[in-house]
């Protein structure tokens, strides 16, 4: 049976979670652990989509449902698919599992559908269909899907067709993943997870275009608190002997609840925006240290960031105990992601020792290199699974 498989890495945040939702700078690093999504045409006669062999339930998988509406709409007679998800990123634990799933699924769907072009594939301005930071006449956030992914007028003329991995675009996958994360997080989501799981390596988000690193694109989102804009940059991983050791508390903590908790704290106490701004300042210092290759200072900024995360109420006793256990053998340690449970991360030159200390304190550990590869198409097909004619 013809199928397509795509994979995307999880991520750890070095600095800036929560503050990044309000437009402040942040840094995330892709980790070795990945999620793989395989798709093929469903063979059952019931016209049901399948997920891991069971009938697909849109309520249980809102990210897949939102992608399906944007890339594989039944209203355009797209045939039902069977999806298999495989991976080593624990869910709801701050490691970007939902963003990695969305990025891999959007790549697999695009490879399976192909893309109509009006001109060159390398200039999204000439795509007859799709989403891109460079296209302003389609709206990835719109409820009116799928027609918004097709262009109207001259630009929408379908002159040339490409399929498989040639049709996949990292920016499109990151953009789609951000849009569906925003839906799942009540309209408040930074592009941190979606961009890191797409591009891999190290991703820096900022409120301005930074000198000396590669700027990729800007992202905008209208949140309940107003419009936000982020500048997304990528940085190659260092040739340095630093590792990430991730400690999982085993407590599930959905991001949407934690983000909502911070939003209502700020609504009731606007003066506490100072703490969010302080996280932004720590991130800015951390970015400088990272670019200078000064990992001792990167670690110190991580630990300082943790104090502010404690102060805004998103840490937990379980996270604190793993962070304390990691401290003596690491350069710095903090929670990663939304907090309230989930994982902490330590930056270390001695991953074995740090991992043992976290395990002794009751955490399950994962060791990762610093900055894994981004999105990959692992199995491809030359013939599309469906063409939107
Ligand atoms: C989640 O990994 C990080 C948060 O900052 C939310 C977001 O950036 O959308 C808590």
Describe this structure in words.
With 389 residues, this protein is α+β, with helices and mostly antiparallel strands. The protein has two domains: 3-234 and 376-381, Ribosomal Protein S5, domain 2 (2-Layer Sandwich); 239-368, 2-Layer Sandwich (Alpha-Beta Plaits). 31% of the residues lie in helices and 25% in strands. Strands 1, 2, 3, 4, 5, 8, 9, 10 and 15 form a nine-stranded mixed β-sheet that branches. A four-stranded antiparallel β-sheet has the order 12-13-11-14. Helix 2 packs across helix 4 (192-199). The mean pLDDT is 93. (R)-mevalonate binds at residues 17-18, 20-21, 94, 185, 189-190, 192-193, 255, 259, 337-338. The site of (R)-mevalonate has 14 residues, from helix 4 and helix 5.
Write a brief structural summary.
Helix content is 31%, strand content 25%. The chain contains 9 helices and 15 strands.
Shape: globular
Order of helices and strands: EEEEHEHEEHHEEEEHHHHEEHEE
Instruction: Let me know the largest β-sheet.
Output: 9 strands, mixed
Oligomer: single chain
- Percent helix: 25-40%
CATH structural fold name of the largest domain = Ribosomal Protein S5, domain 2
Secondary structure: number of strands: 15
Mean of residue pLDDT values: 93
* Fraction in beta strands: 15-25%
Q: What class do helices, strands and sheet pairing give? A: alpha+beta
CATH class of the largest domain: Alpha Beta
Identify every distinct bound molecule in the structure, by name, code or SMILES. Answer: (R)-mevalonate
List the domain count as a whole number. Answer: 2
N-to-C CA distance:
23 Å
Report the radius of gyration as a whole number of Å. 21 Å
By DSSP (H or I, 4+ residues per run), the number of helices equals 9
CATH architecture of the largest domain: 2-Layer Sandwich
> In terms of per-residue confidence, which ranges show pLDDT below 50 for 5 or more consecutive residues?
none
């Amino acid at each position: 049976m013809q199928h397509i498989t795509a994979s995307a890495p999880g991520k750890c945040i070095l600095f800036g979670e929560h503050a990044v939702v309000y437009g402040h700078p942040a840094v995330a690093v892709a980790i070795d652990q990945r999620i793989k999504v395989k798709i093929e045409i469903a063979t059952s006669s019931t016209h049901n989509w399948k997920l891991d062999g069971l009938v697909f339930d849109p309520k249980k998988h809102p990210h897949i449902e939102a992608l399906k509406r944007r890339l594989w709409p039944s209203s355009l007679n797209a045939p039902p698919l069977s999806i298999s998800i495989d991976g080593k990123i624990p869910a709801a634990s701050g490691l970007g599992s939902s963003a990695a799933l969305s990025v891999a699924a959007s790549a697999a769907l695009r490879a399976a559908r192909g893309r109509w072009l009006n001109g060159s594939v390398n200039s999204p301005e000439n795509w007859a269909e799709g989403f891109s930071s460079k296209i302003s006449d389609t709206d990835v956030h719109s409820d009116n899907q799928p027609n918004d992914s097709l262009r109207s007028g001259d630009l929408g003329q379908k002159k040339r067709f490409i399929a498989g991995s040639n049709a996949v675009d990292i920016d499109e996958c990151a953009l789609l993943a951000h849009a569906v994360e925003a839906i799942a997080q009540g309209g408040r989501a930074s592009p941190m997870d979606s961009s890191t799981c797409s591009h891999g390596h190290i991703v820096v988000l900022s409120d301005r275009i930074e000198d000396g690193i590669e700027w990729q694109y800007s992202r905008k989102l209208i949140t309940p608190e107003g419009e936000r804009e982020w500048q997304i940059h990528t940085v190659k991983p260092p040739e340095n002997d630093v590792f990430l050791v991730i400690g999982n508390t085993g407590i599930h903590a959905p991001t949407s609840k934690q983000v909502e908790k911070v939003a209502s704290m700020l609504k009731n106490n606007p003066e506490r925006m100072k703490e969010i701004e302080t996280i932004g300042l720590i991130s800015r210092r951390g970015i400088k240290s990272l670019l200078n290759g000064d990992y001792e200072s990167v670690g110190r900024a991580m630990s300082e960031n943790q104090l502010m995360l404690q102060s805004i109420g998103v840490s937990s006793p379980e996270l604190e105990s793993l962070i304390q256990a990691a401290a003596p053998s690491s350069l710095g340690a903090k929670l990663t992601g939304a907090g309230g449970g989930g994982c902490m991360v330590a930056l270390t030159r001695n991953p074995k020792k740090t991992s043992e200390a976290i395990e002794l304190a009751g955490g399950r550990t994962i060791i990762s290199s610093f900055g894994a590869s981004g999105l990959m198409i692992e199995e491809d097909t030359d013939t599309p699974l469906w063409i939107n004619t």
